[in-house]
């Protein structure tokens, strides 16, 4: 299982390196309060990474946390009956 994870991570790094190398055009990202000069490859990789992180946070907040709460509520009566 670890080998598969390492292979997927390596493939992601390789794709990121290729995207960064093929997109060397300079771009300026305007944040409203600052301008960030960078190249297009770096901007694409950062945008994809932020999208993955934000998507993970949304999934965690909308699915994982409610399921953890439900599991904790379900375990409370089980531990209370085991003690008595």
Give the topology, please:
Elements: H1 2-22, E1 26-30, E2 35-39, H2 40-83
Domain Lipopolysaccharide assembly protein A: 23-76
Transmembrane segments: 40-67
Keywords: Cell membrane, Membrane, Transmembrane, Transmembrane helix
What can you see in these coordinates?
77% of the residues lie in helices and 12% in strands. A two-stranded antiparallel sheet has the order 1-2. It has 2 helices and 2 strands; from the N terminus they run αββα. The model has no long low-confidence stretch (mean pLDDT 89). The longest helix is centred in the last third of the chain and has 44 residues, at 40-83. The chain has helices at 2-22, 40-83; strands spanning 26-30, 35-39. It is elongated. With 84 residues, it is mainly alpha-helical. The protein has one domain.
């Amino acid at each position: 299982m670890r080998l598969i994870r390492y292979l997927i991570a390596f493939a992601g790094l390789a794709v990121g390196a290729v995207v960064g190398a093929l997109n060397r055009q300079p771009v300026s990202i305007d944040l409203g309060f600052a301008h960030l000069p960078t190249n297009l490859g770096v901007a694409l990789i950062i945008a994809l990474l932020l999208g993955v992180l934000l998507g993970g946070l949304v999934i965690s907040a909308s699915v994982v946390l409610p399921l953890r709460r439900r599991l904790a509520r379900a375990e409370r009566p089980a531990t209370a009956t085991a003690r008595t």
